[in-house]
Every structure is written in C-alpha cells, then in structure tokens.
Design brief:
The structure is a single chain. By secondary structure, the chain is of the alpha/beta class. It has 3 helices and 5 strands. It folds into 2 domains: 76 residues, no CATH class; 33 residues, no CATH class. Strand 4, helix 3 and strand 5 form a beta-alpha-beta unit. The chain is globular.
C-alpha cells in the first residue's frame, strides 16, 4: 500500500494527496482529523490519524519528528516537487508559474 503524509490537512492538500495516490489508491497519514467528505470521490483512499504533538503524544510523535529528516534524506518520505522564485521582485514571475503549475508547488522567499 502507498502512503502520503499530509501534516497540513486542508482541502487542497488532501486532494493533492489523494490524486497522487492514483487509481490504485492508498492511505493518507494526517496529523489533524480530516473531513471525510473531502475523500468522498476517492474510493480507494483512506486516512490514518497520527498524534503529532510531541508533548501530549510522545509515543507516536517523538519517533515521527525524530526521524523525519532522516526519512526524507533516505527517500522514504518525498516532498512535493517545487520551484523557488527568488524574492519579492520575482512575484509576478511566480504568479505566472502558479497559473501553469501542474504537479509542483511554487515558493517565493520574500526575504531575498
């Protein structure tokens, strides 16, 4: 079974996660309760809730946050593809990229 980790659990992020699982489906691991209606049109997709607050839920949260960087480095967890468009002077370029974005996230670093 394929898994997607969604720590944000918003309407858009749940949809991207569900679509990324494809026809075969899989499970979206969430850190906040997900609205079941968001997945109504994805028959082969389910959610699994993990408790991510390391103070209140040490048993599940500490292993996750302790090993997250390592799992990303090893390729066990992969981020969404992204493009970085410099500082504020690149804002119009970034907005244009958002309009044509397909399968990647557009990021602006305003401090640059």
């Amino acid at each position: 079974m394929d898994y997607v980790f969604d720590p944000i659990v918003g309407k858009d992020t749940i949809e991207v996660a569900a679509r990324s699982l494809g026809f075969e489906g899989g499970r979206i691991v969430v850190t906040l309760k997900a609205d079941p209606s968001l997945l109504a049109s994805y028959q082969n997709v389910s959610t699994a809730y993990i408790y991510s607050n390391p103070i209140e839920h040490q048993g599940s949260a500490v292993p996750l946050w302790t090993h997250l960087e390592e799992m990303m480095h090893n390729g066990d967890i992969l981020p969404l593809p992204y493009q970085i468009h410099g500082g504020l002077d690149k804002t119009s370029e970034a907005f244009y990229a958002v309009k044509k974005a397909s399968g990647y996230k557009v990021i602006i670093h305003p401090q640059e």
